[in-house]
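Work package 3, deliverable 3.1, input record:
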Amino acid sequence: MFDEAFRRLLVRIAPPAAVRAAEAAPGVPPLWAEIRESGFLDALLPESAGGASLTLAEFHPLALACGEATLPAPFAETAVARLLLHMRGAAAPADAAILLAPPSAILPLAAHATHALIPGPANGTRHWSLIPVSLTGQDPFHCGGGSIDLSAPALFQVPADGEDLLVIAAALAAARMAGSMARLLAMTMEHANSRQQFGRPLAKFQAIQHQLAQMAEQLVSATTASGIGLSGSGFHPLRSAVAKCRTSEAAHDVTAIAHAVHGAMGATADYDLQLHIRRLKQLQLAFGGTDHWARQIGNARIAAPEGTSADFIRTHLHAGTPA
Amino acid sequence: MALADLLESFAPATIPAKAEALRPAIKAFLAQHLASRPPHQRARTWTAWDADFSRALAAKGWVGLTLPQRYGGGGQDAFARFVLIEELLAAGAPIAAHWIGDRQSGPLLLKFGSEAQRKRFIPAICRSEAFFCIGMSEPGAGSDLASVRTRAERTATGWRLNGSKIWTTYAHKADWMIALVRTSGSSDDRQRGLSQILVDLKSPGITIRPITLLTGDSDFSEVHFDAVDLPEDALVGTEGEGWAQVNAELAFERSGPERIYSSLILLDLWTHHLAATDAPALGRFLARLATLRAMSVSITARLAEGQSPIVEAALLKDLGTELEQAIPREIADAVSANPNTPPDPELLQTLAFLMQLSPVFSLRGGTREILRGMIARGMGLR
């Protein structure tokens, strides 16, 4: 399967050492060359354009895998940007690592991108511009985020066609978060099974078991929500809203439990847990957090109060079927 | 179960068009039958007993929807039942009378009952002529179900039953109970020696006392058996296999929309009264609910494939009841935020009911702690 092959690729090219190296040396990481050669960047393009014609739902596992691996490169973003540009009759430079850069408290992966797709010019909403990335801000989480110079001269413009880059970026961020949470739970279970205290593994203590069960609940919920964001024949504001609202909310509990079970060693730079923790917290803030997206859903429901909540969910907030 | 397998169980699923096609007729029926019921009554949904309503539903073919047609059922799949139950709960239909028979006793008898038991009871369940309850908890056995002491001993003509059941949903109105009882050994034998037995609640020697809850409602009762004689064919399934049979029921009991929609009537009522500043709170509820619904549809797909997703059902129920309890808690804070604008009286009444009942949501059908223990064991942690 596509996603298994992709996951194996990431395990090989993006071990924790490569992630740390990318943090220390901003720029497009060496592993990008292998991603380009793998062909996965065209996964969403139609077969007629040399792609694999994946649906968003089929692409979801690949986006999750980026989070699982803390991949220090905008793979999902570039793959989606290539599709968006293709649909508008344009194409990015072949080697571009593309960021989606709508307004955001922070732009994750900005330090590892060559280009950015931004709304505008001049913050208009009817067009997008592809600009070269020039970093202007620092990432307080030290994992390759930042802000970029939006006044850089555009390579070209394309019509937005009514789509919102924030909606798309939020859905991809949600999937990255859910993938990261899966790895976090796996690491936390490994630790609970191996770490001995009071003469037995932590996993034998009921208080720990119940926390891990809650962590699994939040993981399943976040993964399901991010799957709603990446479903149907295109991105949708309310589906992205469910995805980003829920994953950002779930990340609070998941990171807190991961820390609680790991004890102090989970807060050290040496241990790999923090690679996920820092990215999850950065992503919680990116592209609108829980409240922003919750407000979009709430306002949509207030504007359409007829029927039950179940009707509203069935009509607007369920995983859309591909056209 | 590996984490990857757990996530795979929740792979996205879609309700097939055939099941969706049922929805309009159900909506029309409910609009006609529930128009005069105020929200504070509709909020009781599957805890409200209305035998006439259950019979009207049965007349439409909507009781025993998944049971085989040869026994009077609808012969449809788990997705059809999901659609039906979702509509019943969202509308706040009073479905307690047939609920247990439809959800558990009918499927249990189909799976483990004798042909004579199936022919006798399943058609009666589907016509809403026989209402069932389940005798599980006892005064000394709640979450620790394996320690039941109620005992059925063999006699020349069948079985003699002695003991007590408690927290039995609507035993005081039901016609039949399927009880988990000890047929051999002692409570030290735990799961071994338990059997399921059918009890006609009109039998001599049975005393039933309803338990009044803090809401004033009486959904549960205490049942005493004093030398109750039961016929030979009262045994359901295999003697000594009661524990395994009961566990097979649990995925049905914990995975459905009833574990996510218990506060839906309140949420919908509040939607018509809330302030613009409440939009994020409403949105958070809906995001959680949409996600839970997708998870419930995924489990329904596993049930439709014939699997028994017990761990997945426990996970859904724990998350679902958390939301069902968060809704009244947060709406209480929202509607009391400004003493100068008292809440709408009907909203207040519906809210008050759910503020009082909602602690029970994470007790009934398996407590939060039991469920988390099951999930942990499913993850290989014990």
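Chain A touches chain B through 54 residues (CB under 8 Å).
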